[in-house]
Write a structure and sequence with these properties.
Helix content is 30%, strand content 25%. The protein is α+β, with helices and mostly antiparallel strands and 307 residues long. Strands 3-4-5-7-6-11-12-10-9-8 form a 10-stranded antiparallel beta sheet, with helices on both faces. The protein has a 3-stranded mixed beta sheet with strand order 1-2-13. Helix 5 (115-124) packs antiparallel against helix 7. The longest helix has 19 residues, at 196-214. Zinc ion binds at residues 66, 68-69, 106, 144.
């Protein structure tokens, strides 16, 4: 068990800007909205503007220094090595104890082969959930592989998962229980089990089927959340149709700067602009979720016949 909390305290003590942003979380403006029958949170977080509006197309990424590589990281930022990764404190947090866990090597954001690391990390970081933003679904560094981790207990989706795991599985593969669930942010696939290798194998099968049935070569659009609790892993796959909703690209008053990544899909919506925070309604959020996620099960997501 690593002493992650001591590491975070040490980092914040020697990085005033990050300390300020982490302290601000406690007093940040937030509101609750009823979205598809569930209470979700909206927060006004101006420090996130750069991330929300990040250009993640190949040309833009190629022409900027990678902020996850040691040479370009802020001079105040320290790293805690873990396996093939460096654990870093996110200076612009959305949730308490927000971490970025980046590979030591500069390799692309791509999930195949990384699920075992995600499961291992979830067990190692006690009291945290691990998050993955696909390269086309919220990762602001699609060129450098990274997970995020946040303290558990702050997202509406975790309460939904707590409820779902007490309901019957849709199917069982090996000893992995698979549940397909409609949440406030679309159709999710929950894989639960005691054996990380088995969960990873089930994920791989689903991933490969998504690729073959969508006739694509890129990574299927997705967010993933992993939690380890009571000796069980829970891996939640959130398939996505697109990254940003229409209103993100609208002009003038119609524009809303919401760019959904995993945390937004988990029910904590980030608005870096105060006007968006004040004006955004339940209907707006429902429409945004409808645009970026699946609300009816497409045949490639849950391949009963091929598993
Ligand atoms: Zn890098």
């Amino acid at each position: 068990m690593m002493d992650i909390r001591a590491f975070i305290d040490k980092q914040l003590a020697q990085w005033p800007e990050a300390q300020m942003c982490h302290d601000d979380l406690a007093r940040i403006r937030a509101k609750t909205l009823l979205v598809n029958g569930i209470k979700i949170k909206v927060q006004y977080n101006p420090a996130r503007e750069r991330s929300t509006t990040a250009k993640t197309d190949a040309a833009s990424v190629k022409n900027r220094p990678c902020f996850l590589c040691p040479a370009n990281r802020p001079k105040e930022q320290i790293a805690m090595p873990w396996e093939a990764y460096n654990i870093l404190v996110n200076p612009y947090p959305i949730l308490p104890r927000h971490l970025t866990v980046a590979t030591k090597k500069h390799v692309p954001q791509s999930i195949p082969g990384k699920i075992p690391d995600m499961l291992d990390l979830a067990k190692s970081l006690d009291g945290f959930i691990i998050l993955y933003n696909g390269p086309q679904c919220g990762a602001s560094a699609p060129d450098h592989f990274h997970f995020q981790a946040v303290e558990s207990g702050h997202t509406p989706i975790e309460r939904a998962v707590d409820y779902w795991i007490r309901t019957p599985a849709s199917s069982i593969l090996g000893k992995v229980a698979i549940r397909e669930k409609l949440s406030f942010s679309g159709i999710h696939l929950l894989m639960s089990g005691h054996n990380p290798k088995e969960i990873s194998d089930v994920f791989t099968k689903i991933y490969q089927t998504m690729i073959s049935r969508q006739y694509i070569t890129d990574e299927p659009k997705m967010n993933i959340i992993c939690r380890y609790t009571k000796k069980l892993w829970h891996l939640l796959l959130i398939p996505r149709t697109r990254h940003r909703p229409d209103r993100f690209y609208a002009e003038g008053d119609a524009q809303i700067l919401i760019s959904p990544g995993t945390i937004d899909m988990a029910g904590v919506i980030v608005t870096p602009r105060e006007s968006d925070f004040e004006q955004v309604t339940s209907t707006d959020i429902e429409r945004i979720y409808k645009e970026v996620a699946f609300f009816e099960l497409p045949p490639f997501i849950y391949p009963h016949d091929s598993l």
